[in-house]
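Subject: mismatched residue count in predicted assembly?

I count 597 residues in my input, but I want to confirm that the predicted structure covers every chain. Input:
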Amino acid sequence: MQNFKIIGKDDLLSVATQMKYDHYRLAQISCTKKDKLDLVYSFVKDYDLENIRIELEFDEEIESISGIYSYAFLYENEIKELFGVKIMRISLDFNGTFYKIKKTESKNGEVAQNG
Amino acid sequence: MSFFQMAKTVLSSMFKKPATLNYPVKPREYDPIVRGHIEIEIEKCIFCGMCQRKCPTGAIKVERAEKRWAIEPFDCIQCNNCAESCPKDCLHMHNTATPANENRDLIRDARISVDAEDNKDS
Amino acid sequence: MGNRTIVPFGPQHPVLPEPIHLDLVLEDETVIEAIPSIGFVHRGLEKLVEKKDFQQYVYVAERICGICSFMHGMGYCMAVENVMDLKLPDRAEFLRTIWAELSRIHSHLLWLGLLADAVGFESLFMHCWRLREEILDLFDMTTGGRVIFSVCKVGGVRKDIDAEKLKKIVEVLSNMDSSLRSITKIFLSDTSIISRMSGVGVLSPEEAFDLGAVGPMARASGIVVDDRLLGYGAYPHVKFEVQTATEGDCYARTKVRINEIFESISIIKQCVSLMPSDTAIDVPVKGNPDGEYFARLEQPRGEVVYYVKGNGTKFLDRMRVRTPTFANLPPLLHTLKGVDLADVPVLVLTIDPCISCTER
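Triage response: the counts match. Full output below for your records.
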């Protein structure tokens, strides 16, 4: 079974910096929306996989890691638009226009909810 | 040099048989396992609804009371799940595409045929 | 400073088979920035996992992409099998590997054809697709589907390939070899193709790592990364070399993909000769998945990540796919900076974009 390390949202930046320092690459960021928002950041070094999990309340804000991993901006924009996670200070923030979906729907991440 | 390489390929292609079929004259032959479309032997069907439950797209509708079995061919993804799950072995996958038909209902519904219904009553 | 213009590129463009939109900021003829936007074909497939049970979802997973269709089904099945702790029979693993490698050959040939088309070499495009058609016929013969195979299922595969058909596969691949070599030689030695690709869109190894490139994109920059070495499927039993190049330009990416075709042929031949005689191809699946797993596998375009989270019912909580094109977008945006507008189509093509995958 794979390990999922649970951390608080304030530790995200320091953990991500450490990962970058250890030459891990960001494999993906995923979000699960059930009774809570559940963000999983996966880091890959050669063939090891490290997963970091952060649980958030719906209206909680979280820092972007796009300052550390520049390409995280794609994942973060996606999560922001489809799940309505409040990710702050993304290096290239599309503000809801990354996915060309009707604006009225993508504002609060309603698209993901309604299917 | 590489020009002559390509010229060689072009020249040899000129004398080779075409890679395509002379289609309407020579139709394509499909392997027997190719999944084309589903057909039902309605006489053997017991309307158990197993195929309806197994169908991933919900293309099959079975109404037990009316003894009606219908498939929406445009929803069918040719996965062969229904044929594999049929307890009476009355669903068959054919290796040709769904035949064209002007009457949409004919393709969509394979109701129990009139003859078979007569036989059942007698 | 020259004149700045913004040229919209896509979503409809002659060289792009799939819709991605790039806003190219040009200074005279040179691109200085590219801003992507996607979402033209967003289908909500990840959400659909809550509506279909986990066995039925295999068919949806296969339809994420039309080209690496088999490997999407396989990745999803691998993730669910790992959650449920299923051990597949060896024969199923070998069959999956054969189909996966055939998919790789077919995908690379398709891509070579598109590349020839993008550089304006129409007859080469036809030749590539003619060869690809022979692979598609093999799919027809062994799985019953040309593009969507529907042979993967949770717990194994649904169809066996008998000895006769295995022999046929090897025969077709051996016969293809000479024409494949003569065609790929054109890509690697034709002056006009080289002048179109060589030195265009150079990605250094450091940049490739910093931007998270995967698959042939990373390997062309000299990074040895291949998820087949993770040891899924039958890959631990076969010998293969990870194909890399050092230049990091479009030409290197073409070279890597061409070498991978030959490597795949050798993998398939080894699989056929090592094929276990035991005829079991699936294991019974009992219960429902409960737990989560990240499966990673190497697709023709690079690494795909499948995340599956089950809750003990037959409907999964969450399924996430991170497709290779999504990871290769940042390197593309980076390499676009500084190229001529006329080189943009070729460069966009060399990441082998699959936008439908990317948006799910």
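Residues 43 and 116 of chain B are 7 Å apart (CA to CA). Marking this ticket as 'not a bug'.
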